[in-house]
Amino acid sequence: MKKGIRQFTVEAAAILLSVVIFWIPFYFIIVNAIKDEKESSLLNLRWPSTIHLWANMKTVIEARDYMLLRAFYNSTLITVFSIVVLIVICAMAGFILQRRTGKATPWLNFLVLSGLIIPPAIVPTIWVLDGLGLFKTMTGLVAVEVALGFPFCVLLYKGFMATIPREIDEAAIMDGCSGFGLFYRMILPLLKPVTATIVITQSVFIFNDFTNPLYFFPGAKNATVQLTLYNFQSQFVTQWNLLFTNILVITLPMLILFVIFNKRIVEGMTAGSVKG
Fold first, then answer.
1. Confidence grade of residue 276 (pLDDT, cut at 50, 70, 90)
2. What is the C-alpha separation between 188 and 162, in angstroms, rounded?
3. Where are the transmembrane segments (predicted)?
4. Judging by beta carbons within 10 Å of its beta carbon (0-12, 13-18, 19+), is residue 83 exposed, middle or buried?
């Protein structure tokens, strides 16, 4: 009886905490996005007297010669290219790290882990990209996003790879499969659960990234969705209704994606914990 009460208390506290941390701020964004400029300047949770959502959305979309649409295009391309490169490279790296053991393996594992610990350096990265002719280019930003997501994705693939029997490798090699044939024909199709997890989590991270496009992909034509927030915020006057409408518009696509595929994220994250 006491155990049931304790469990109920913990669950109720968790729900209350999630409401405070997530739903109240989200409600704050919605309620101020549907207000006019005067009411939104009060920055409170009060429901507006009249709803101006569609007018605000039209203004946001048309601002600065439809910059938001161009930003959605840029963010989508960067996200898609980054995810494709991450899946191919990280899946192969995870396969090699899990299947092959040698003197260099501990050092390779350490280098992968260090990528999660060591923070990225802005100025040296700009210097390297500029030297390679990739600064202010989409290719350079994709390379940065891939480098930042590489350690996390490799660890996920490596953990999931441990659940795939080695007998599959041996049988494929005996049937005449090459190294690439073994990986792409036999192993990669079995990685769908963890691949789905990586696609969703990294898409949310890359699409909503603010810092990297700001530093490595500057320019009005290169704007991404998060950088469009600058359109309605300045040192002297901030159009809060338009700012919150912009936040709502760029948040909803990834929020819907996350809610729909939440179950797949959990499955992919826990699949590699069966054995290592």
1. very low
2. 13
3. 12-34, 72-95, 107-129, 141-161, 182-207, 240-261
4. buried
pLDDT digits (tens, 9 = 90+) for 100-134: 877 888 888 888 888 888 888 899 999 999 999 99
The Cα–Cα gap between 71 and 225 comes to 5
Q: Whole-angstrom Cα distance, residue 62 to residue 208?
A: 21
Residue 37 exposure: Cα atoms within 13 Å on the Cβ side: 8
Residue 82 near residue 206, CB atoms below 8 Å: yes
- In angstroms, rounded to a whole number, what is the distance separating the alpha carbons of residues 154 and 98? 10
CATH (residue range 64-271): 1.10.3720.10
In this model, does residue 27 exceed pLDDT 80? yes
* 138-184 confidence digits (pLDDT tens): 999 999 999 999 999 999 999 888 888 888 888 888 877 777 888 88
Q: What is the largest CA-CA distance in the chain?
A: 74
Q: Retrieve residue 57's tokens.
A: 């959305």
The chain-wide mean pLDDT, for the chain, equals: 87
CA count, 13 A, side-chain hemisphere, 198: 29
Are the C-beta atoms of residues 172 and 185 closer than 8 Å to each other?
A: yes
Parse the chain into domains and list their residue ranges. Answer: 64-271
Looking up tokens 């203004």, which residue turns up?
A: 59
Q: Are 34 and 56 in contact (CB under 8 A)?
A: yes
Q: CA–CA separation, 225 vs 218, rounded Å? A: 13
Q: Tell me which DSSP letter residue 19 carries.
A: I
